[in-house]
Amino acid sequence: MAAKESVTLLFKLYCLTVMTLVASAYIVALRYTRTVETELYFSSTAVCVMEVIKLFISVSILARETGSPGRLFSSLKEHIIDNPKEVLKLSVPSLVYAVQNNMAFLALSNLDAAIYQVTYQLKIPCTALCMVLMLQRSLNRLQWFSIFMLCGGVTLVQWNPAQAGKVQVEQNPLLGFGAIAIAVLCSGFAGVYFEKVLKSSETSLWVRNIQMYLSGIVVTLAGVVMSDGPQVMEKGFFYGYTPFVGFVIFLGSVGGLYTSVVVKYTDNIMKGFSAAAAIVLSTIASVVLFGLQINCLRYRHVPPLLLFDRPDEGVALKFWHYTETRVGVVLPVWIRYICCAI
What is the pLDDT of residues 80-90, one digit of tens each? Predict the structure, then answer.
């Protein structure tokens, strides 16, 4: 029994570390490619390439899981070719995730990475609402009060916006915040919908991923045609791609796959730790790369993030507080919570 607990602890620490690094690196790298580089690539094609990469990785992992090409083909035939209804069911989150990814590109083309990360935490109340409506889970009064605190804190963050100096393209903050609002709604709905599908059957996670990414490729290709069709025909599908853009696509692919693993095998508390730590890393990187000027008053109002514990531990939630050092670096006071949360 002890050995099992040790493995579980190591796995959750691994999840926390990888999610934090991937999330923070992806946001900062994407922001860099959309503001510093002068020849902008088509974000719609980048989202499509991510879906293709995730499909190939999922098929590869399923092949290893099944053990032989024959079993792999049988699994694909059973769950995909002979079961189109399941593929259609997974097309719903595919469409929503495609919209969310495109909105992330649009938002980070018009907002600093740190502002995006903090404002994007509104996905927490949106996810909580979806959990109540779709999964019939209940939240107590303290949890709802904390959600409203989060919304108020995000509003205060925008009261005195920070300034970024190393940006070479024109930006529209209003458009950026609108894109975040859409991304938040998509994140909450798609995440809870996918969790419901995953945990309502014994079907392999990688089969579910393949079902979702197949429809995702169709959806994103349609998005390329509708949003950037003439420009893609004129300049090419991979116009503006650089090694750094390839790195962003790789991070986005890994992040998408990792999200599905976390939804299947861990709990929401890991997402909370990852999101809060990613905000700090993204803020530091934005100062270095984009000349972001941190306003201490602004970050004093950064809201606490909700961390929902397992019910059997007798703890409804914890708050993720922020503190400011004398040199203005924003640091989370969360180290003391790791042991008891995991």
Answer: 989 888 889 89
